[in-house]
Amino acid sequence: MRNARALIMLGISLVIAAVAVFFAARWLNEQGNIATAKVVVAKSEIAPGTPLTPEVVSLADWPRTSVPKGAFADTAQIKDRVINTSLSVGEPILESKLAPVGSKGGLSAVITPGKRALTVKVNEIVGVAGFALPGNYVDVMVNTQDAAGNPISKIVLEKILVLAVAQEAERDPTKPKVVSAVTLELSPEDSERLDLARSIGSLSLVLRNQLDSEALTSDGARPRDLLANQQPAPQPVAQGDSKPKVVVKRVYVRPKPATAKPQTEKIEVIKGLTRTEVEFRE
């Protein structure tokens, strides 16, 4: 009896084990049959304006259901193309990240069609202490004189894209660098305004939030604006005095000198029945 029960338990264990092995094998088979596709990715970090060559790209397996839109399946498809943004290792190369067909390497491939690149000279302060990096947006402010000859500071260009700092177009926000020149992307009209602004005064860059698109309505700042709200400093009050002291000034009024009265003499004159007095002054 005991042997029969042991055989039954052994048989049930074998059935359970067989079912578990079956489902495990099925799951592994499904995992191994996941559909993949070849995608061209960056083999190393790529800076903007770099021509794509076999040395900087490679093919990688990518889940077919999540292949990014605009990805390439063959390195021959991107031959002689130029990247217009920075790429990290293993990042897929997309059509939206490439310069138009026929573009050559260098900064010119990064410039948006219809735009221009203009380099302005800056220093440690004007260059926002090195924090104006490629990809940031800045406002351009000029310090000059108005028509009356008074100093004025005015923002003349807003939300201008920084293409490069010094000779570097690669962005590394962890390493701000103090540079001597910043290259900006401008429309032809803004290029003319910037060239005129730097000829009539000194330029400053104002770093702004990349998501801030609100237009500025400022008339500029003048010396009178800085001093308009200045109030005279209050006089210090001695501790312990709750009421201000009243100062009384004594004014001495000099009396007017008395005027001496002239001496007079009276003479009585009698004419018939009339009597009069005549007064003579000395």
Element pattern in H and E: HEEEEEEHEHEE
Relative strand content: 25-35%
Distance from first to last alpha carbon: 176 Å
Determine the fraction of residues in helical runs and give it as a percent range: 10-25%
Main β sheet profile: 5 strands, antiparallel
List the uncertain runs: none
What class do helices, strands and sheet pairing give? Answer: alpha+beta
> What is the radius of gyration computed over CA atoms, rounded to a whole number of angstroms?
47 Å
Give me the count of strands. 9
Lateral arrangement of strands in the main beta sheet: 3-6-5-4-7
Gross geometry = elongated
Q: Please, what is the average pLDDT?
A: 78
Can you count the helices?
3
Task: Tell me about this structure.
This protein has 282 residues and is α+β, with helices and mostly antiparallel strands. Among the domains are: 36-108, Antifreeze-like/N-acetylneuraminic acid synthase C-terminal domain (Type Iii Antifreeze Protein Isoform Hplc 12), CATH 3.90.1210.10; 111-227. Helix content is 17%, strand content 26%. It has helices at 2-32, 188-200, 223-227, and strands at residues 36-42, 57-63, 116-121, 137-145, 151-165, 181-186, 202-208, 264-271, 274-281. The strands form three sheets. The chain has a five-stranded antiparallel beta sheet with strand order 3-6-5-4-7. The protein has a two-stranded antiparallel sheet with strand order 1-2. β4 (137-145) and β5 form a beta hairpin. The longest helix is centred in the N-terminal third of the chain and has 31 residues, at 2-32.
